[in-house]
Design a protein that fits this description.
Layout lengths: L2 H4 L7 E5 L2 E5 L4 H14 L2 E4 L10 H14 L4 E7 L6 H9 L4 E4 L19 H9 L3 E4 L11 H15 L4 E4 L5 H9 L4 E5 L1 H5 L2 H4 E2 L2 E2 L12 H12 L5 E3 L8 H4 L16 H11 L6 H6 L1 H5 L8 E10 L15 E5 L1
The structure holds zinc ion.
Length: about 350
């Protein structure tokens, strides 16, 4: 790929890169799952599939049965399966999950995310489980927000827990999912290469002003962790554009039907649906900062390296062909709905 040469051309019309990976994705269940799997396969070769279903993926048999459901949809998307860490998870279960093909376990502190009411309240109580994950060479993915702390401070408040985990399990590969703050970025950079972070498209594009404005919430921009300040956004963007090897793409694309988003009372469901627009948006953003040559590493190399996976063999081509993002995909409003994008898959 001679992107560094290609970008010299003023009117670059096509961009071919290794087919990307999405290292944080919600593929849901039922009818929604059947639509999401093929849509994801249009943009991504592999996806790390989140386990927060109802009921969650906890045991080896849960994992096998979800994998079977996903595979039955029929697509060439390669599934990287995960399990949800529960207060009841044991080292024996970790060994069985590894045997069943799990690549990562996900830690959700209680109450911070969708379907996390049954999450973990005492991280230290799981130390024997983290030890087993370290021995089994599994990745620990963390939703790094401290329960009971305000949405703007919750990630920063969680960082000492992350640091303690790394100190106690230096060989355990840990991912701070959807990093959203300057403090989070700085913490990751201060730790060794066994700790990384996924970065979403929406945290690179939006700030809290795009989520809340004059007491009004834009439900389609509402997620946890919430998009933060312009200072936070800029440092995320600089870090990603610099090609820092500890930061790689994970969309956290989390579709919710419009009816559970556009509610007249109460809190909208949390999650941004970005799968169909993620690559065009990233291409536009990287191009804007004259770093299109670094897009491929961010979406198709650094994450695979962290997960100790080979680079994908397939490639994907983006064309400069402006299109308007649909208002809905199967009842779900995507990020950038109704707006124009320069690049098309
Ligand atoms: Zn998520």
């Amino acid at each position: 790929m001679l992107l560094s040469e290609a970008k010299e051309l003023p009117a670059m019309t096509e961009l071919t890169i290794t087919k990307p990976d999405d290292f944080h994705l919600h593929l849901r269940q039922g009818d929604l799952m059947k639509q999401l799997v093929p849509l994801t396969a249009e943009s991504f070769a592999r996806a790390l599939v989140m386990p927060n279903l109802q009921p969650p993926v906890v045991s080896a048999s849960d994992l096998k049965s979800y994998q079977k459901d996903l595979a039955a949809v029929g697509s060439d998307l390669q599934l990287l399966m995960t399990f949800k860490l529960m207060p009841s998870t044991t080292p024996q279960m970790v060994a069985e999950l590894r045997q069943a093909g799990a690549v990562a376990g996900k830690l959700y502190p209680q109450g911070v995310s969708v379907n996390s009411e049954d999450g973990v309240t005492d991280v230290e109580a799981l130390y024997s489980v983290f030890d087993a994950m370290q021995e089994q060479n599994l990745v620990l993915c963390i939703h790094g927000e401290m329960p009971g702390v305000g949405e703007m401070e919750a990630e920063t408040a969680f960082l000492p827990t992350l640091q303690a985990l790394h100190t106690n399990f230096p060989r355990l590969r840990i991912v701070l999912e959807h990093v959203s703050t300057r403090a989070g970025v700085e913490m990751i950079k201060s730790l060794s290469a066994t700790v990384g972070a996924t970065v979403t498209v929406h945290h690179l594009l939006l700030t809290i002003d795009d989520v809340r404005h004059d007491h009004h919430i834009n439900p389609h921009h509402y997620c946890r962790p919430v998009c933060k300040s312009e200072v936070d956004r800029k440092i995320l963007l600089e870090t990603v554009l610099s090609g820092h090897p500890q930061f790689f793409f994970g969309s956290d694309s989390a579709p919710h039907l419009k009816a559970t988003k556009e509610v007249s009372t109460g809190e909208p469901s949390r999650g941004v649906f970005s799968t169909p627009v993620a690559l065009p948006l990233l291409a536009q953003l990287f191009e804007e900062y004259d770093q299109l040559s670094r897009l491929e590493a961010f979406v198709a190399q650094l994450g695979a390296d962290f997960y100790q996976l080979p680079k994908n063999k397939d490639s994907i081509t983006l064309q400069r062909s402006p299109w308007t993002v649909p208002q809905e995909y199967f009842g779900v409003v995507p990020l950038w709905a109704g707006k124009t994008l320069e690049w098309k898959i």
